[in-house]
Specification:
4 strands; about 170 residues; mainly alpha
């Protein structure tokens, strides 16, 4: 601020006002004195509160177990996020809409939970019905037996196909 002095005559009123504004802008985001002390204490209290809340949320989330009972024994699996049941027992929750039990087949009933997809009847991989094959192999034509049993003496061997004598040029096409 002292560098703004223009000499022995001092500052004009307008320059003094600008200098005052400049000093205010330099410490715009800085706190001094009691305000700085109170702000530091508030930050420390917030840090303690958020650290405690984060640890508490972590411990409660890791301790959430499935609420289902199997043979009067509580399930020990961890529950799915935002639910009260594990993946095995998620269908027992009447409010959920993301999973449906697999109906299985007539011979083998199945109640495995399956994510609801675009199909109307979701199935587990064991009971999934595959679509018909798109590729149909060509039918092999049946060869008549009389062609298969052709005599071999009608065919010439490779040695018989080789010319043994040189023919005149007029016959050697």
């Amino acid at each position: 601020g002292s560098s703004l002095l223009t000499g022995p005559e001092g500052l004009m009123a307008k320059e003094r006002e600008n200098l005052k504004r400049l000093k205010c802008l330099r410490r715009y985001r800085q706190r001094y004195g009691v305000e700085a002390l109170l702000h530091r204490q508030l930050k420390e209290r917030r840090m303690l509160a958020t650290d405690g809340a984060a640890q508490q949320a972590h411990t409660t989330r890791s301790s959430q177990r499935c609420l289902a009972f199997v043979d009067d024994v509580r399930c020990s699996n961890q529950s799915l996020p935002m639910t009260r049941h594990c993946l095995t027992h998620i269908c027992q929750d009447t409010n959920q809409t993301l999973f449906k039990p697999c109906h299985g087949s007539e011979e083998i009933p199945c109640n495995k939970p399956v994510p609801v997809s675009l199909s109307e009847d979701p199935c587990c991989p064991l009971h999934l019905r595959l679509p018909p094959p798109m590729y149909v192999p060509e039918q092999v034509l049946a060869v008549p037996e009389e062609l298969e049993a052709a005599p071999t003496d009608l065919y010439l061997s490779a040695a018989e196909l080789q010319p043994t004598e040189s023919l005149p040029l007029e016959f050697s096409d």
